[in-house]
Amino acid sequence: MSLAVPRVRLLCGARFRTNLHSNTRTPNQWSRVGRQAMSIWALVLILTAILALGGVFVWLALQVSAVRGPKRSEQDTLDGAAQDVEHIFNEEFREELRNRGRLHFEKILGENAMFLQQDLRLTTSQLNEYMKGEISRELKEAFLSYQGAIADAKQLAVESIERTKTAIDEERQSLVGQLEKEVAEEKARRIKQFEERMSEVINHYVLEAIGNQIDLGDQLEYILAEMEAHKAEILEDVRHGT
Amino acid sequence: MELDSHAASVAGKQQPKLPVLVFGIVEVRRLKRELEALEDFMRQASIREPGKQPALPRLSRMLDALATDNGRNLLQDADRQELHGFVQGIEHSAPTIHISFASDPSSAFVAKLVTWLRGNLHPEMLLQIGLQPAIAAGCIVRTPNKVLDLSLRQNLIGQRPQLIAALDALAAETQVASPQPGAVA
What was the pLDDT predicted at A53? Predict the structure, then answer.
């Protein structure tokens, strides 16, 4: 049986490919036989590698134990570990850690404060927008209601003014008529009074004007004439009176 | 002496009459008191001793006029008694008329008025004079039962229509004389 040199290439763990040449068998048979032979060789190689690695590890352990000398006690180990810890995590390192933690905490606090501030601003702006919208809507509704009320009140006022105007016109007409009537009555009364007292007015005027200049001697004829005109009347009353 | 001359001139006795000077009841009463005083004087004189007679009292103008106008002798008892009775009768029964004037009348005016009253109304008419300055002219006569306003005021009242017509005419003349500014285009 002629076997072609298998070429195995290990790529990324467990991938390999073989090219087999066969003279008697079919290509498929030759391929199957090649793959079986390759699996056996790979298994042997892996086992060999594992054994080699185990031997190397044991050898190294022995060499290390030989270098360290006798074994220290467990307490010493703990103390050493503690010293190492103290040596590694000393006060400066801790202060550095605190500073870093403080800075980190401040950073987180600042970020959260910034986030909270942004959120608060956003909420405030949204709340403002909401309040503006609500207030605008309420104000519009109130204004509409007020406009309606004002229109109703205006209509009522106009009607009231019209009624008042009508009443005032009627009252004015009545008062004008009454006033004209009273004026006419007063005028007639004054004229009548003037006519009735005209003689007194003229008499008073005559008395004031020429009262001191009227002589009884000049009036004797007038008086005697008047008494002559009423002679019978006077005589009758004198006779009956006596 | 005067009384003696008047007594001698009287031929026949007639009804006495009041002189014009005696026009009111005040004067009549004064005349009566004067006659009574004269009667007392005469009675006192008759019982006095001779040669001690007091002087005859001075007579007033009214009593002198009464005796003179009626032809009576005041030295005579009968005449004095007659005049006293006459004056007393006048005091109680003479008609009285009251006349008011605007001012106090003069004696001459009163004499003329009393003469007219006694000549036309009653011979024994007495007059009472009042004063009403409110009447410009004329008089107001008041009899026992009536009041007659004969003043200028009453006369003007009686002429009211003429006064109104005169005022209307005067108003019309005033309007024609001073037309309204709006009437002149």
Answer: 92
Sign of the dihedral through C-alpha B12, B13, B15, B21:
positive
**B160 Cβ under 8 Å from any chain A Cβ:** yes
User: What residues of chain A have any CB closer than 8 angstroms to a CB in chain B?
Assistant: 195, 198-200, 202-203, 206-207, 210-211, 214, 216-217, 219-220, 222-224, 226-228, 230-231, 233-235, 237-242
Residue in chain A closest to B149 (alpha carbons) equals: A226
Q: Where are the domains of chain A?
A: 1-70, 120-241
Q: How far apart are CA A134 and CA A241, in angstroms?
A: 114
Q: What is the DSSP letter of A22?
A: -
CA distance A166 to chain B (A): 34
Mutate to test the interface with A, among B25, B96, B116 (most CBs of A within 10 A): B116
Res A75: pLDDT: 84
Instruction: Look at residue A43 and tell me whether its pLDDT is greater than 50.
Output: yes
**CA A228 – CA A221 distance, rounded (Å):** 10
| High-pLDDT (> 70) share of chain A, % | 85
Distance, CA of A82 to CA of A60 (rounded, Å) = 27
What is the least distance, in Å, from the CA of B13 to any CA of chain A?
27
Residues from chain A contacting residue B103 (CB–CB below 8 Å): 214, 216
Tell me the per-residue pLDDT of A111-144, one tens digit each, with 9 for 90 and over: 889 889 898 999 999 999 999 999 999 999 999 9
Q: Does B107 touch chain A (CB under 8 A)?
A: no
pLDDT at site A70: 56
Largest CA distance in chain B: 110
Residue among B155, B156, B66 nearest A223 (CA): B155
Averages of pLDDT over each 10 residues, chain B, 185 residues: 41 76 89 90 81 77 87 85 89 89 87 89 88 84 88 79 82 75 51
Q: How far is CA B16 from CA B65, B82, B160, in A?
A: 11, 9, 47
Report the alpha-carbon distance of residue B42 to residue B53 in Å, rounded: 10
Would you list the DSSP string of B6-30?
A: HHHH--S-------TT--SHHHHHH
Nearest CA in chain B to A217: B109
| pLDDT grade for A22, boundaries at 50, 70 and 90 | very low
